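Notes from the pairing session

We agreed to fold both candidates in a single pass and log them together. This is the raw record for the first candidate, unedited. Please don't reformat it; downstream parsing expects exactly this layout.

Candidate A
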Amino acid sequence: MPIDITTDFHGQTVISTFEMTPGTCTDVLEALTTAYDEVIRKQPGFLGGAIHVNDAQTRISTYSRWVKREDFQAMLRTQEMRERNRGIAAMCSRFEPVMYEVAAVF
């Protein structure tokens, strides 16, 4: 579902970055796509998300929006996502989810 980015959004925006080699990019992308399809999008408070891959296939960024911060944190604490995140992290040299607020839209 499309995400409208606005400064009056009062929920939680999370942008996660994953760094990997081009050889593991497809595996990480598959793991993330499956996680979103099977688990993340079904969690309470999930509003929408997107996955982006850079041209060199060395970085993936995900963008997700949640009703509130606690919804995102609860999703991370589920046994299913803890196991999936361990597998995803093992394929990456770096994995960092960061919570943001929209400051401006152009």
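Candidate B (folded immediately after A)
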Amino acid sequence: MLATVGDQLVQHGRVVGQHDKIGEIVEVMGQGGNPPYRVRFEDGHVGVCSPGPDSEIRHKDTAH
């Protein structure tokens, strides 16, 4: 999973009724675009994430 600053990290809800959590990658802390990433989520929370299999990267040039 590779990302650049400005891409979106989408953490999919794992149970019925749980919404996806979407954030903007503000810092790539790993080498060559690898995790961990510092992410600013829609609610303003900023955290460091190493995405798991329930996550995806939406690159800024293809984000919806």
